[in-house]
Amino acid sequence: MLVLAAGAAGVAVWLTLRGSPTEAPALPQDAMPGRLLVGFQDDPTLRWNSDRATMLAQARKAGATVIRSTVIWSQVAPRRPQDATNPFDPAYRLDDLDELARTAERLGMELQLAIWGTPAWANGGQKPNQAPTRSSDLADFAQALAGRYSGRYPGYPAVRLFSVWNEPNLEQFLAPQFDARRLSVGPAAYARIARAVYDGVKRGNPDALVAVGETSAHGHDKPGAGGVQDSHSPVRFARLVSEQRPRVRFDAWAIHPYPLYPAAGPAGRIRWPGVGLTSLGRFGRALDRWFGRHDTPIWVTEYGFETRPADPLGVPLADQARFAAQTLRLAAGDPRVRMLVWFVLRDQRGNPWQSGLIDAQGRPKPALARFAASARRLDAQDPVVPRGTKRVRVPALELAYYTPSGGQIEVHMLGEKPFSVHLGRDGWLELPFTKVRAATIRIWATDGHGHFANWTVRRRG
């Protein structure tokens, strides 16, 4: 789902760091029992509307630790940059994204950026859903974007979560899916796109993670099937992508596992080769087999339920509330799933998609409270670590907004003497964890200027 009203929309996620076996779990690559990265995608509400700062605070209050946003390449770079790998080339229009990144950081939330939409100058004057003529143009853009938000430049927060395209198994977002001979060509085109974004992002910021896939839950595997747009099922699309050479590399697979009918709810069964919330385990095992991996992480980067009467095909408000809590419970119970992004936070007048937790008049739906309560119980900013962990990493984004990279942060652990650590370039703190023996450890930190962050770390095992 990508709504191009004032731009793009979809759903959301959070942060990670690679580490040694003695470190805390590296989200979202490593599973943490009972924890889930939760957030929203709603670009009109959270990125463009006049009350966007207030609504971002509302998203944080609703339990969000990540905001997903679509970076439409064709809008960010409507003309060819002089130096496409330069994060600050004058051709790039990123002021709104800069503001979103800073406000999210101040509120303690990460960004996940989804790259989509080819400029006309990069694909021979075709629509944004056509692949670029030269993959290197896309790789250069991805490098510039990841570099701008690598944490190397003061005033530009670090962003380490990226994904490639939007529902590329649908003709609406990647065309063509089949050629004039009725042969499948979409997966091969997507493999080229995915390689370009992965390579570019890693050049711009080696610490960043890149999810590929971003597939719709449903699709036909024959051109012209049912008189609707050409598409591939997510299972066949992923398998065909896995067969492309050189092999596509990625850190996670992203998917939008909506039920076939909203009334079926999150536990509704979807016939294979479609993929729903309850078949992510089977899909993950298939990904492992096709790509030669083990325990492939899955990011649910878009999910939600529309409501009626705003949408006649939606579910009653009470059902949306029940489904929201059930969705988070099911996702957190699947060890492959690292995050879940809800699409959208607030309904918009004139927008046909009505899955917000707040209606178009600004009134909270019953689902808002249910979602917030569930999200807070699953808060991945309060890590769960194995016994024997010697160092633990925690996000201090609220402090990073005010403190430059490398600045001194004073840390307090209950029952321990205060100590100081340096703030990482990514806005995280790495804390020694050898003397603490309690099963639950409460930690708080300050920059010494009235700004604070706090966490609860739990041991397991």
Structure described in brief:
The protein has eleven helices and 15 strands. It is an alpha/beta fold and 461 residues long. β5, α7 (234-242) and β6 form a beta-alpha-beta unit.
Q: How far from one another are the termini?
A: 40 Å
Taken as a percent bin, the fraction of beta residues is 15-25%
By CATH's scheme, which homologous superfamily of the largest domain applies? Glycosidases
CATH class of the largest domain: Alpha Beta
- The CATH topology of the largest domain is what? TIM Barrel
Biggest sheet statistics: 8 strands, parallel, barrel
The H-and-E topology, N to C, reads as EHHEHHEHEHEHEHEHEHEEHEEEEE
Number of domains: 2
Structure, described:
This protein has 461 residues and is an alpha/beta fold. It has two domains: 37-381, Glycosidases (TIM Barrel), CATH 3.20.20; 386-460. Helices cover 26% and strands 19% of the residues. The protein has helices spanning 43-48, 52-61, 73-76, 95-106, 135-148, 186-204, 234-242, 280-291, 317-332, 366-377, 397-400; strands at 37-41, 66-72, 110-116, 161-164, 209-216, 252-256, 298-303, 337-343, 384-386, 391-395, 408-413, 419-422, 428-432, 440-446, 452-460. The strands form three sheets. An eight-stranded parallel beta barrel has the order 1-2-3-4-5-6-7-8, surrounded by five helices. The protein has a five-stranded mixed sheet with strand order 9-15-14-11-12. A two-stranded antiparallel sheet has the order 10-13. Strand 3 (110-116), helix 5 and strand 4 (161-164) form a beta-alpha-beta unit. Helix 5 runs parallel beside helix 6, helix 7 (234-242) packs parallel to helix 8 (280-291) and helix 9 (317-332) runs parallel beside helix 10.
